[in-house]
Amino acid sequence: MQSIESITDSPFTQNPNNSSSSPVNGLYGWLSECHGFWHNLALIIPSLLFVLFLGFQAKKSFQKLSHGRSYIMISYYGCLWLVSLLNLAWCCLQAWECTPGKEMAWNILSLFTTSGMLFLEVSLVAFLLQGNYASGLEALTRTFVVSGLIVGLDLLLKAIYLFGFGVPLFIDNTEHPHQVKWGLWVVHRLVLTAIYGFILFMYHSKWRERLPARPAFYKYIAIMFILNALALIACGLTGNGAGFGFWLYSATLVCYHALYLPLLYITFLADFFQEEDLHLENVYYSEMKDAGFFDTDWE
């Protein structure tokens, strides 16, 4: 009798992840582990909805891509699908970060997910700096080569620090902040903030003719500048042991993984898939004309 009571009171029977627990408790435990229920839900729901949206629009998108024959759009759409699935897995497997024995799997998943999203960021910026809506194979090659080199170097450096020096880049610990880790993230965010800030400066300078005159691109750059500036401040505060800095960093991370891919789709791909009657070049020409880019021709 005493042995039965000891088994009943053992911690294994109270563990929500145990096979004897109900599926509801197991699901809640999986969602609430590590960063908390609302944090994980804020990541999973938007990323899942975006993947479902891509799935529902897939047939129409493939037809549009086959008719448009834009190398950049086809390649970018394929990359978007791959990164969206990686990001969904990353959002759903947040519990791995705090699970013993899953550190290696979590680091590898985080490394490839962040590198994939950075590739989309860098390739879009590289496209912007070309100054036109190019669709040829040469423009695609130039954009993807530059993006691949930058992201490949970034991935290599992160892998060296992660697996070579044991710096926990993707595992957060508020009680013992790792100075080297947050210093690396400060440099990373500083570079991105400087790039987006420079493009914003170009939009308000005499060099704005080099950039697409689409308001959507300008709004995208402004949003990414603000997000990276906030993340930069958060990393600096967290590295100095400020609790508010870690909260701000978590908030920027949730916004990035939950909303960046839909923002990129709206900015870069939505018009291509929705435009039915007119050629896309005519739409962009009208927007450039409304923005006053051709007023100097009459002077």
TrEMBL record:
* Regions crossing the membrane: 37-56, 76-96, 108-129, 141-162, 182-204, 216-234, 246-270
- Keyword field: Membrane, Transmembrane, Transmembrane helix
Q: Report the subcellular localization.
A: Membrane
Which superkingdom, per the lineage? Eukaryota
User: What cellular component GO annotations does this protein have?
Assistant: plasma membrane
Keyword Metal-binding included in the entry's annotation: no
The Polar residues compositionally biased stretches are: 1-14
- Alphabetical list of Pfam families matching this protein: Tmemb_40
Q: Which GO terms describe its molecular function?
A: G protein-coupled receptor activity
Region annotated Disordered, chain positions: 1-20
Record's keyword annotation contains Transmembrane helix? yes
Annotated membrane topology is:
Multi-pass membrane protein
Q: Which family does it belong to?
A: Belongs to the UPF0359 family.
Q: What is this protein called?
A: Transmembrane protein adipocyte-associated 1-like
Species of provenance: Herrania umbratica
